[in-house]
Amino acid sequence: MTQSDTLPVAGLATHLPVPDSGQWTLADYEALPNDGQRYELLDGVLRLTPAPTPDHQATSLLIAYYLLQHIQLPGRGRVFTAPIDVELGPHTLVQPDIVVILATSAASISPRRIVGPPDLVIEITSPSTASYDRREKRDLYAAAGVREYWIVDAGTRTIELLCLEERHYRAEYVYTGQAIVPSRVVQGWSVATATLFGG
């Protein structure tokens, strides 16, 4: 991750009165101007998320397309893509690439954001976000109770499946090619991993 990926807003917009890094709240986040940037709030630290690449966007759309067919169209739940705010605590709000909320968790969908842990979070990683997705976000999602976390790497065309067990993730496996991710959340998932990368 580059330094600009994690710069607090205080370094980006000094014309605004901003809290010290680590002291941001949801109210501070909501007071940010709509400047077209994508921000996340992790334990009171405001982070600027880099714009997605074309490969990132293409992969995100394909995965969302298959999840819509499997989850949303049959009425099993809802599928959301970034930017969507997910509130995981008083000082934590993230914008995962893809979020799945099953019908049994529908109460977590509020008019402004998702409040509480989604059933499935998918992050499409890149060289600039890999350590962030695999460390900070992994720990954050586990602590919040996100049941399943997929780390998708468009460069290597792999999906790492992490399943929650007692507030920690157990790495199931890294899937590629014709292998099918054995999701516990997306029951009956039968889409080959390669298909999610366009081939």
TrEMBL record:
<dbReference type="InterPro" id="IPR008538">
    <property type="entry name" value="Uma2"/>
</dbReference>
<protein>
    <recommendedName>
        <fullName>Putative restriction endonuclease domain-containing protein</fullName>
    </recommendedName>
</protein>
<dbReference type="Pfam" id="PF05685">
    <property type="entry name" value="Uma2"/>
</dbReference>
<dbReference type="InterPro" id="IPR012296">
    <property type="entry name" value="Nuclease_put_TT1808"/>
</dbReference>
<dbReference type="InterPro" id="IPR011335">
    <property type="entry name" value="Restrct_endonuc-II-like"/>
</dbReference>
<feature type="domain" description="Putative restriction endonuclease">
    <location>
        <begin position="27"/>
        <end position="193"/>
    </location>
</feature>
